[in-house]
Amino acid sequence: MIHHMSFGVRDPHRVAHALAELMEAKPVRAPAPPFPYGAWLVVSGDERGSFLEILPATTVFDPDAPLGLRQRPAKSEPVTSHVLVSAAVPGEMIHAVAKREGWQAEDIETGLFKIVKLWIDGNVLVEFLAKGEAGRYVDAFGAAGLSTLDEKLRHLEANLLTALSQKLPPQVLVEALGPRPA
User: Fold this and answer.
1) What DSSP character marks residue 66?
2) Which residues are bridge partners to 52 per DSSP?
3) What's this model's pTM, rounded to 2 decimal places?
4) Hey, is 52 helix, strand or coil?
5) Which helix (H) or strand (E) holds 157?
6) What is the mean pLDDT of each successive set of 10 residues along the chain, which is 182 residues long?
């Protein structure tokens, strides 16, 4: 079970408050130390103690650094990690907050569930299951769906690959997916 996740942004205070609004969570300034100055927590208050750590974009984890953190020059490039969280509000409100904050947002039907992709600072991806959308996700990835999950994923994979190969040149697919394993 994941209890918390961290990511860095240009304005942790603003991002934490906006995400807390969408999650009906509480934004709390993180203690420094052990967190870097300017870090915030978005605390859900659920039975698992789930929260998001919103760090300054200059923060990186480093096993050789004091407290396991160090600062680097800020970069604004896409990152590898993302998080999917449940929103306490409908998709329309997620889009409204995104527009207010200047963030790109789009609805995506994955074939197994529907999400709203929210791009913070143009490089950090936070995906939301809008209010009422979590059921399909749990049906697919929860205990009841595990026995058929691989079959569903392979079916989805085949359908998407067919559709994408009809729309995109092969080189674009290789750039997005990497080379196909042998």
Assistant:
1) G
2) 5, 42
3) 0.87
4) strand
5) helix 146-167
6) 89 97 96 92 93 92 88 76 93 97 96 95 93 94 92 90 84 80 74
